[in-house]
Amino acid sequence: MDFFTRMEEATGVRLNEVQQQAVLHTDGPLLLLASPGSGKTTTLNMKIGYLLLEKKVRPDRIMAITFSKQSAQDMSERFDEFFSDLTSDKVHFSTIHSFAFKVVREALRKEGQDFQLIEGQINEDEWKKGFQGEHVPLHKKFILKKLFEDENGTQISDDEMDELMTYISFVKNRMLSGKELHKVKANVKNAASIYQSYERFKKEYTNSLLLDFDDMLTYCHQSLLDDPQILHRYQQQFEYILTDESQDNSVVQHEIVELLAKPQNNLCVVADDDQSIFMWRGSDVTKLLKFEGTYPDATVLTMSQNYRSSVEIVEVSNQFIKRNQNRFHKEMFTENPSSNPIAIKAMRSYEDQLKYVTDQVKQSGPKEEVAVLYRNNASAVPLADKLSKAGIDFYMKDIDAKFFKHWIVEDVLNFMRLTYNDRRVDILERIHTKFNAYITKSQIAFLRSRPSQESVFDLLLETDLPSYQKKNVTQAKKLFAEMNKMEPARAIRVIRDRLGYDKAIQKMVEKFGFNGEHLFTVLNTLEEIAEGLGSLKGFADRLKELEQLVQTSKYNKQSCSLTLTTFHSAKGLEYDKVYMIDLINGVVPSKEDMDSYRKKEYGPMEEAVRLFYVGMTRARTHLELLTYGYKGDERVSESQFVTNVRRIAKFPDEKRAVTRRKRPAPDLSDESLLGWDEIEVGREVEHQKFGVGVIKEYGGAAIAIEFEEVGYKEFNAEICIDNGILRKKE
């Protein structure tokens, strides 16, 4: 009885022809391209079982690496499920970080070098306590906080800390140095200089070498290069190396694996270049695309059969991912039965979207696994608010309570606190630069020196103020008094518009390089939460309730059929029903993705396409794409990805334009005419009347073009394409 027949009888698993080829290929390099839902984890475990049971390889001679601790645990559990009755051998599944730490520890001990890890959880009290004089607590965040303040002369915000840590992780994982550091975009002033100071600090501050998590990789790589003895020993130990989720590996991770696999190169790399979505933390899909260049004798197999999704979802997803040029050619298919067509719901407003999702979740069956997916965690808070008010429990996969500690949230609450008691100089001091009363530091010092039961505004008005400031302080006093009686949503609007908070934020964005899109998203979210609440106190209480709700939702994993998660964290998971929300241009793809594309930098847009594809392929039988026309009072446009899906799935247009042809019908077989599938933001085109221009926006029925001669104009896309008005400008 052959191996596959025995495995089918013992485990119930029946491998298809490509999966069997992958299992049998043990000698030499193999790139196994695995489409979503194609059974890669099963295949990888069967391959390990084949090495153990058929080739009699010792388990300690097999190195099985995956991307995350969770993936390693899942692989280990699946292996036990298949083989615990067949063999007592146990292969160790690990992350590359855990292996790297082992190498670094050995190399540094050999050199007699003490080291200390400086990364890990830090609680809020420790963070608030901060420094003791000049003493810097030996933790990555405290060190970066001190270096940021030394470099820029200001306190670092939570957003800047996140951005700075992402930047550092990226440059380390991409193995960048020197002038390359300054080319990496970062919304943090002097990020490259701070990084260089950080690296010096870790080597010079104490006798111990200070290491963060990313140093595990860079030091491991350097140790393997510098110490032939250590490298040779690990090369001799591991006869077979298997890596899962390799599309998520960074440059330095790929380099470590390449070193370990030599000279036999008995390497199995399991990956899907179409699901590479972690470029922002250093992953590099080009390493996969160059696999056959790195290993000229490599075998490449493609597992294209999807066992997860309905034929409708598979066919549209397969066509959608072909938007990308920088990829391996694959044709995903399925033998699963037909189900519901992909649904596209275009609603009037963001609020309508939240109501629709809530209503749909309510109607789902008790045993249906449902997921709501979104690009950014900012989408989760208003959704959690809506679901909570409707009495719907949920499990939130990405617990991100940082929103509730954000300085903008604290600012808005301070504005509200001052409406209750405008004698509070301490509160005014926190927000005096963020509204249009032009209150100076010296005026704050004056107020502090005059303990009084009077209003801070009255005290200021008793001094000799410039005429412009007197008018504004008088107006501010009046507005703060009026806000106390307002519903919170209206009060926030007064803070933003009439007190000038939005303008103050915009100035900070321009001065300090903050991410303005993110900051205004936080403000918009606060307005949405405030909607329908009766008092300012009720708003503050609701924020506390929501924070508690978000933090405790992690305990609902086993008892709850509804999951809220980002596209990134949904990778590798599957659900009966999937709702992808906030599908508008500026969110997915993001404004940054679109700006890069206009500059002919295609990488970010291709990653956004892959991210959307990952979201689509999480669904088994039911997939809905949700978009809308208004976010508050702002007009927004349907994501160009939704428009693309609409064309692929041949959806009828909701508002089909009726046009009278004033000219003979064009020859639409003319290859110089722009076709539906060729509309891309950033593409140069030629209009019959207005000449040469560049497509700046595309979504729904609208296409916007910036012309060389007449500037920015919007058109109905259907009229332009069906009448042959636009030509490709090659």
Helix content estimate? 40-55%
Which class of secondary structure composition applies to the elements?
alpha/beta
Stretches with pLDDT under 50, minimum 5 residues: 653-664
| Total beta strand runs | 20
How is the biggest beta sheet arranged? 7 strands, mixed
Provide mean pLDDT, rounded. 88
Q: How far is the N terminus from the C terminus?
A: 61 Å
DSSP strand content: 5-15%
Rg, nearest Å: 29 Å
Task: Name the overall outline.
Answer: globular
Secondary-structure blueprint of this entry?
Layout: H1 3-11, H2 17-24, E1 30-34, H3 40-53, E2 62-66, H4 69-83, E3 93-95, H5 96-111, E4 115-117, H6 124-129, H7 140-152, H8 158-173, H9 180-183, H10 191-204, E5 209-211, H11 213-226, H12 228-237, E6 240-243, H13 251-261, E7 267-271, H14 286-289, H15 291-294, E8 299-303, H16 311-320, E9 343-349, H17 350-363, E10 370-374, H18 380-389, E11 395-396, H19 402-405, H20 407-420, H21 425-431, H22 441-448, H23 456-461, H24 467-483, H25 488-497, H26 501-512, H27 516-530, H28 536-552, E12 562-566, H29 567-570, E13 575-580, H30 591-598, H31 603-616, E14 619-631, E15 634-635, H32 640-648, E16 684-687, E17 691-699, E18 702-707, E19 711-716, H33 717-722, E20 726-728
Parallel strand pairs: 1-7, 1-8, 2-3, 2-6, 4-5, 6-7, 9-14, 10-12, 10-13, 11-12, 13-14
Antiparallel strand pairs: 14-15, 16-17, 16-20, 17-18, 18-19
Helix pairs in contact: 2-3, 3-4, 5-11, 7-10, 11-13, 16-32, 18-27, 20-21, 20-24, 21-22, 25-27, 30-31
Protein name: DNA 3'-5' helicase
GO molecular function: helicase activity
Family: Belongs to the helicase family. UvrD subfamily.
